[in-house]
Amino acid sequence: MTPTVQEAQRLASWQEKPCPWWCDANHTDNDAPEDRGCFSTYRSTPLPLEDPVKVVAPSGEQWALDEVRSGIERKSPGALPILTIGHGDIDSFAMPLDDAQAFIDNIQAQIDAARAGMAVA
Fold first, then answer.
1. Are 79 and 73 in contact (CB under 8 A)?
2. Angle at 54 between CA 51 and CA 56, to 5 degrees
3. Are 73 and 37 in contact (CB under 8 A)?
4. What's the half-sphere exposure (Cβ side, CA atoms, 13 Å) at 47?
5. What is the pTM (predicted TM-score) of this model?
6. pLDDT of residue 6
7. Is 53 exposed, middle or buried (0-12, 13-18, 19+ CB in 10 A)?
8. For position 10, what pLDDT does the model report?
């Protein structure tokens, strides 16, 4: 979602320009230098072929589908954004955007090959 003019004008004292539209950080004047990066909301994709996982909910522990998540990060103002892919609460890795695009292209090629093989069978 693209920010409104009013949202774009609310800059922390250390910011030289607004954050990218995807940034969900709530920057303040008091941000330490290591906390001045940007991050997006993670997008999650369920993994129905994996074993369910326990999650903590307000009503107690529950079982849920496992998932893989992705998000955008920029470690500091002016740095290039990267794509972060994660699984579970701890496992994650990051890629420059060009590498992330190559990864997506490889996955798409595998999906296309699998679907083409299904049509032949």
1. no
2. 155
3. yes
4. 11
5. 0.76
6. 43
7. middle
8. 76
